[in-house]
Write a structure and sequence with these properties.
alpha+beta, six-stranded antiparallel beta sheet, seven-stranded antiparallel beta sheet, 2 helices
Amino acid sequence: MARLPFLYVLSFLSTCAYSAAQIPRPSLACMGTVLGKVPVGLTLIQDPSVVQDPNSGTVLIPGVPLRILQSVGGGDPNGFPNIPFIAGPYPGTLHCSLNSGAIAATFDIPIVLTVLTGGTAYSVSLSSFTGTFNLGAPGTLTLTLPGGSTGPRPILFTSFEILNANGALLLTPIAAATPLPPSIILTLTGLAGAGLLAARRKRYFI
């Protein structure tokens, strides 16, 4: 029984350790759709110029946001000039998915394709999106997309445009116990040692 206070303090101090594991970079994908008779889609690109780990560009480091490029476009090169593309806005939804190991999640992003006057060109407006996905032990993933709009593009040509505003993917580890200041750790360790010594002396004098 004399050792219990000392072992308790050691156990308590061990719970103050903070660990954050890296995970493989998750994959992001969005399905295309057709709005106003014009195919439109979104591609989420993990910025290839950003290498978080010097030994591997395939991991996601906790607390370090990874830049996500938003490439939006559409058009139909197989369309015929006599197809009536009626001017006006055509709202819709892009169905997207995030996969990281055994974790798979789906999310929707509102989008609007606008056929411009004359019916020969279009523009796309992508709504902003923020979603948080629970990964279990590794923590949570937060995907932030600011949205944006493309310039006018000919309907009868396929073209994609990377929006000026970049998104971000951030891994946040599960909150751990707040590490104790070194002074408190030394005090607790000293008290535990003193208690253990006192218990031994008491046993000897009995």
